[in-house]
Specification:
Chain lengths: 326, 263
């Protein structure tokens, strides 16, 4: 009951960074509960003993390995439900990300378990875990207690920090999983396709980011000109909405399914600041937002907010910065 | 093919949301509207119907909620649904996401849909999760945040953005698909459709009608207990400039950036 099972997502020979954060958090919580943290990996032949066992350095004592299709949620639900039924884990823990939400929700339904999502902190109290989740646009924090045999906790992206130690590899235990009919009804045709040009935004000191408020793909010309005016180590970033709309390359995307950045300056133009975007850029040292909607959530976490028309402001700002730099 | 679209009534985006301190639940009084993300799901259903690749007999909007949720169903019908189903029962109040998904799945079983569509998230609370819960109870495959969907009578070819780029997944029907807002641009309802919405068939269903076990739903029976909310650590409020004179605004921005040595 005191043991915690963490799903560790992997891709092309590497365990996901957010999953490793969840393993470290699971190890910390399990020790407070007097149990152990175990991980589970699901996939094909690339899951070598070495790769699976590598979660040991992040605090897992054992890792279950199931051979099943990867990149899809329901095979993982099947695998986790079996491991929990056989071993009696009290909690299932997930780092952020799309699959974590899908697997956690599916597992909750399968096990009749309570689920908390977008969790930013977890603590042990009286032998149980209590999850904290920000709600209402992060203006309040709700606490979630579980009364089911298993509690399911899905972290917000970057909520849990990975901590590597010199602990050895985790013991690898293979599990046989019979796939449910629903898991067999989905087939991955292509995974991880990159669309658009490759751009580097993670190393930039200044990021000028554009969102749907730019109005159209051509709106990025304003953003690119402003980034260029800053010169040096600056780059252009984008929100998921505009990437999905094909206005800007996927490699420039910030947020839940994109990249996480922490530049010195993050200047957001026409970005409302949904949670899914916020989790990817809130660590920026200085956040400046330009948006015509005074109620946009981004103004609640920007250091300088400008309520106005970016089409008027951005070109003049570009000129002013050029002039200032001489 | 029969398509069911799950919809939800949410507080209007312009209304300040708050937690009712006496119940610890969201205060859902005040102006309400159809969850904007759900309009993309209805539009996706309409495009399948109009696309001609498969024959769609019926599009049914389904919701769970109090009496007022009827308005969300009217909106859904005005956007193209042929009829609607309203699951409403005092026993359901305060259900968590797992209990809500179970209750919706029980209601959907009465309809035997070939495809269940929903929006990627609700404007007011849960995140991306309800579709996966519903699918598990129906034992159907599911995929969330789909931004492109090609349909033939037996299967769907779906695209979405996942952790490592774009994934393409083939799904055999029946299935539960939640769509991302990039999938389409929802149409506006015509005046005629708005006027006619109240005349379309609307089934009101109680928990017992859908064989929903009372012990598995409602706030008291939910496995995740949401307790008192507290204030988050306060971050110092940022400076806000209302742009009236743009030259002046730009001077202020440059001064602010300069002070922090960001130029």
């Amino acid at each position: 009951m005191a043991d915690i099972l963490v799903y560790a997502l992997h891709y092309e020979g590497e365990i996901n960074k957010n999953s490793l954060g969840a393993v470290s958090e699971g190890a910390r919580l399990a020790s407070e509960l007097g149990g152990e943290c175990h991980a589970i990996v699901v996939g094909g032949d690339d899951l070598t003993d070495e790769l699976a066992g590598s979660v040991g350095a992040y605090g897992a004592t054992k890792v279950y390995r199931a051979r099943a299709p990867e990149g899809l949620a329901q095979p993982v639900v099947d695998a986790m439900a079996k491991v929990i039924a056989d071993n009696g884990h009290g909690y299932a823990l997930f780092g952020g990300g799309l699959l974590g939400f899908e697997v956690g929700a599916g597992l909750a339904a399968r096990l009749g378990a309570g689920v908390a999502m977008e969790v930013t902190a977890v603590r042990a109290e009286g032998g149980k875990l209590v999850a904290e989740r920000p709600i209402l646009g992060d203006s309040a924090i709700s606490e979630i207690n579980f009364r089911s045999d298993v509690g399911i906790i899905i972290g917000r992206l970057n909520a849990f920090e990975s901590k590597q130690s010199d602990a050895g590899a985790a013991t690898v235990e293979d599990v046989e999983v019979e796939l449910s009919p629903q898991a067999q009804q989905a087939t991955m045709v292509q995974r991880g396709e990159q669309r658009g040009a490759d751009v580097d935004i993670e190393g930039a000191d200044v990021l000028v980011a554009g969102g749907r408020g730019l109005g159209k793909a051509e709106g990025f010309e304003l953003v690119e000109a402003l980034a260029k005016a800053f010169g040096g180590n600056s780059a252009v970033a984008a929100t998921r909405a505009v990437v999905d709309a094909g206005w800007y390359p996927y490699a420039a995307q910030i947020g839940q399914t994109g990249k996480t950045v922490a530049p010195k300056l993050y200047l957001a133009a026409g970005i409302s600041g949904a949670i899914q975007h916020k989790v990817g850029m809130q660590s920026a040292e200085n956040i400046v937002a330009i948006n015509k909607d005074a109620n946009a959530p981004i103004f609640e976490f920007s250091d300088l907010g400008i309520v106005g028309d970016l089409n008027k402001i951005v070109p003049k700002l570009t000129d002013a910065i050029k002039a200032k730099k001489g | 093919m029969k398509i069911c679209v799950l919809v939800k009534e949410v507080p209007d985006a312009a209304v300040q949301k708050r937690i009712d301190p006496s119940t610890g639940r969201m205060d859902r009084s005040g102006e309400k509207n159809l969850n904007p993300y759900d309009t993309h799901a209805i539009e996706a259903a309409m495009q399948i119907k109009e696309g001609g690749a498969v024959e769609v007999e019926e599009i049914v909007a389904v919701t769970m909620g109090p009496e007022s949720a009827v308005r969300a169903l009217h909106k859904a019908v005005s956007l193209g649904a042929d009829r609607s189903v309203h699951l409403t029962d005092a026993a359901l109040a305060g259900s968590d996401v797992a209990a809500t998904g179970y209750a919706l799945a029980q209601t959907l079983k009465r309809e035997s849909p070939d495809l269940v569509l929903l929006g990627q998230q609700s404007d007011d609370g849960e995140c991306y999760t309800i579709g996966a819960v519903v699918a598990e109870h129906l034992r159907m495959p599911s995929l969330t945040q789909v931004i492109k969907m090609d349909v033939d009578p037996e299967k769907l070819r779906c695209e979405r953005q996942a952790e490592y780029g774009y994934d393409t997944v083939e799904i055999t029907l029946p299935a539960v698909i939640s769509v991302g807002d990039a999938i389409n641009e929802p149409r506006y309802p015509s005046l005629k459709a708005i006027m006619g919405a109240k005349k379309k068939p609307l089934d009101t269903v109680a928990a017992a009608d859908a064989d929903i076990e009372a012990s598995r739903v409602g706030g008291e029976n939910s496995a995740a207990q949401w307790t008192a909310s507290k204030a988050p650590p306060q971050k110092a409020a940022g400076t806000i400039i209302e742009d009236e004179d743009t030259n002046e605004t730009v001077d202020k921005i440059v001064a602010w950036l300069d002070e922090r040595k960001l130029i």
